[in-house]
Every structure is written in structure tokens, then in C-alpha cells.
Amino acid sequence: MKALAQVGLAHQAGASSLFLSFLCVAIRFTAAGVLLGLSCLASRPVFTRLEWEQGLGIGVMGGIGLVLQMDGMSYTLASTSAFLTQAYCVIIPLWVSLLHRTLPVPRVVGACLLTLVGAAVLAGLGTEGFRFGRGEWETLAGSLSFTGQILWLERPRYRVNRARHSTVIMFLVMAATAWPFALWLVPSGGSLFLAYSNTAALGLFAILVGLCTLVTFPLAVLWQPRVSATQAGLLYCTEPIFTSAVALFVPGWLSRFASIDYANETLTRNLMVGGLLILAANAWLVLRPLPTAEEPPAPQSS
Questions:
Q1: pTM of this prediction?
Q2: First vs last Cα of the chain: how many Å apart?
């Protein structure tokens, strides 16, 4: 996504990062929704009311979260974005405590404090000055939206839904959420698709739609309801481990492919210390078994 933003800026001077973020989300999920929708129509074309309801909820929250995350990445490192995104791992158990009107257990409070300290280290607080800017704030706002998406998926009423059908609705809702803003933010005198009407952008979109959307999202919708929202958030926190690893060499590959200047990241002290603190906070929350909901029926894959 960060490489796509750079490609867009290189091919459409004057385009804002927010415009490119909305346009990327719109194109990505329109393509994914159409492709996955065709497979559903070929088998079982009827969508139930609950599938529409589930898809609308996770689509709106997921779309807002992705736009904020992508625009935020234009102002911070991909690895920092990945670590800050997992703030939902702490927000979710806090929300559960509020929902049940009980005080958070000590380890949840301790994990929250560790996460705050880790975020401060990632932002450079106390070393190079306070640098918690637009990118970091947008990423945290996106994490809050993803929290809602995770909690929505956990609702027992949706366990009878077919994962592919709910995912199609989610994709199309995310696209519909982004298109009006993309159209509104088109640069003066510019073209809507100029930024991404090039070979490099098409290649990056093929990876983003094929591997990172059509494979991962249906799997999440299918299997996440089989665990609690807190457990799901903790499992998702492995994302920054992979992001930090691939950011050491993949940006160089993308730079050569797309003819952009996207340097590989390095293992800085702030990244290692801040990241380890946030991961430690999440590990602390699973030292003891977490309460789980009643075992749901086996999900339908069709």
C-alpha cells in the first residue's frame, strides 16, 4: 500500500495522500468484490438478511480503518504503523470490561501501560522529541475502527452466515464508502485514474487484490467467530512481526519493480524496544486462559 501511494504521487502531481488512500481502497475492494461475487452467484446467488447485516457492519468499519491506516502510512514507517495498529489488542479487553461493568483485571491494566510506553518509544518520545504526528494518530484511529470490526464479527447471531457471501458484501460496502471521497478529492484539473493507470500500479494492485484481499479476508470472516474477540485481537498482533521482517528487504524489490524510491527499513533501537514492549503487553494477556464463548457450530464455507 505504501508503494502504491508513492506510485500514485509520481504519476499525478498535486494529488493528496488522502485522495490516493481513498482511491486505492475503492479500486481494491471493487475488484475483490466483483471477483468473489461472481463465484457466489455461480453457486448460491441468494444473500440472507443476516449476511447483509454482517457485511454492512464490518464493511463500514473496515473501510474507514483501512483508509486511515493507508493515509497514516504516508507519514510514518510501515513497521511503526503495524505496531500501532495492534492497539486493538488492548482496546478489546477494556471494552469487554466496560460492557460487563467490571473493572479490568490487573494484567489488562499493566498491558495497557506497557502498550502506551511502547507507543511512546516508537514515536521517539524522550530521545528525539515528541513525534506523535498525523501518521501515528491516523493509525490509532484506524485501529479503533478495526476494533469495532472484530467485535462485530464475534456476534453469535452471525454464526449461521456463509463466509464468502458476507465477505462479498463487506468488500462492496468498503468500496462504496471510499468512492464518494475519492471523487470529491480528485485534484483540480486532474483525472480520477491518472495516478494508477500505469503498469507498476496494475502489478501492485494484482498482488494487493489477489493475495492480500481475496485470500486473507474470507479466511478471517470464516474462522474468527470461532474464537473470542480478545483472542482474535491477540492473534492479529503477529502482523507487525511479519511487517518488520519484510520491510527490511521488500521495499527495495518494490522500488526496482515500480521505479520508485522506497528504501528498505532498518532495525532501529526505537523499533526493537517499542515493538518488544507492545508484544510483551499482548503476551501478558495470554499468560492465563482467556474466557471463551460457547463453542459455535461449524461455519459454512460456501
A1: 0.76
A2: 30
Residue 293 in any domain: the answer is no
* Range 114-118, long-range pairs (CB < 8 A, 24+ positions): 114/277, 114/278, 114/280, 114/281, 114/284, 115/87, 115/89, 115/90, 115/277, 115/278, 115/281, 117/277, 118/83, 118/273, 118/274, 118/275, 118/276, 118/277, 118/278, 118/280, 118/281
CA pair distance 302, 299, nearest whole angstrom: 9
Nearest to 138 by CA among 57, 58, 73, 182: 73
Structural domain boundaries enclosing 160: 2-284
Q: Is residue 58 within 8 Å of residue 163, measured between CB atoms? A: no
Is 296 inside any structural domain?
no
State the total domains in the chain: 1
Write the pLDDT tens digit of every residue in 147-194: 898 889 888 888 889 989 999 999 999 999 889 989 998 987 678 888
